[in-house]
Amino acid sequence: MKNVFRHLSPQQVLPLSFLGFVLFGVVLLVSPWATRDGGMSIVDALFTATSAVCVTGLIVVDTGTYFTPFGQGVILGLIQVGGLGIMTFSVLFYRLLGTGISLRDRIIVQSSFSPLNKGDVLELVRSIFIYTFLIEATGTLLLFFGWPGGSVSWRCLWVAIFHSVSAFCNAGFSLFSDSLMSFQSNWWVNVIITSLIICGGLGFVVLTELVHWAKKRLQQERHARLSLHSKIVLATTGSLILGGTLLFLMLEFNNSLVTVPLHGKILASYFQSVTARTAGFNTVNLYNLANPTLFVLIILMFIGASPGSCGGGVKTINAAILVIMAKNRFKGREEGEVFKRTIPRETLSRSVTIILSSVVLISVVACLVMIAETGGYTHSETRGKFLEYLFETVSAFGTVGLSMGVTSTLTTLGKILIMIMMFLGRLGPLNLAFSLAKRTPVTKFQYGEEKVFIG
Fold first, then answer.
1. DSSP per residue over 75-114, as a string?
2. pTM for this structure?
3. Distance between CA 59 and CA 39 in Å, rounded?
């Protein structure tokens, strides 16, 4: 077995590692100690474990009532492992055992948290665990003392821990049957949860850089500046949150939020804008949203979080690069120019490839899900289901976890398709393509150019 793994590329080790933890989670979830009725089907256990390891949050059973504390603990452990990245735990174990980490293992970790230099891997992993513990611990304490009613108990502590980890890892699993709808007007819970989501969605590279940048600014160093990567991530994240909030507010002002006071409308719109890109919590009933609002959420879910983070989607960087390329084209400038820097052409090409392959993947899987789930219905009946299944598919791809209530009604084939989508969404379509593709020899010649018409 060891020799088999030695012949695998880093991009192939990552999917196999995730798959291994999914199967380990299935074994624990089907045990009689995990559920209150003492049993869970293999398919439902596989779906739940995949959703947890891929930090998605789509569920076929209610997490708070169906699972025992042991089962909830298993799900939380899978979320933490999947959120931080399995290979980072491997590096931690190497360090605890006092053994070194090989160059191959460094490259594997680098594949999970690009971009970074190979020499920075150990420092990055150490920082990841420190920041994760501090952020999740802070979130736990703030939620623990901020739950409505002011009750203090072991149950409240467990709920605070679960939701803090789930929010930071952008998982969206909740111990409440209505997610966080009962906290729609609670600004404390809303702000804490969204802050954890944003921190987890920025990416560990950006978080590390922000801390170093803040230290230099406090020390009044003149050369304190952020990298181009961090600037694009922060600018794109801020724009998406603001734009999503305004669009949600305008579209739902006199619809699902018609009875909510103005400050509550703004809070709910902000929360859904943040959580739609990767987390999956909700404070409004998605089934009551207007179709244009659902379309906005689909776009946010498709974009997802940032590279090296806990979330999925095509990533903020790639979406931003596409906009930058189009904008520069119209202005007649170099395609990759932004913030007085130029993005390499290879990066531009990869971004376009990721977005294009993601669109194709979503289109194919959404079509297959509709075929699997609409058997026995008339054409007029199935047209109303189109948006629901497209929403579910994009939510799985973006590892978001938002649903219009169809997850638990899926057939076995439908669940398998959504599981595949969650797996591909967590690993990234391009990373999986690299995992399966064989190396092609580099040619020493190039064919001549010839123009084609594009419009």
1. HHHHHHHHHH-HHHHHHHHHHHHT----HHHHHHHHHHS-
2. 0.90
3. 16
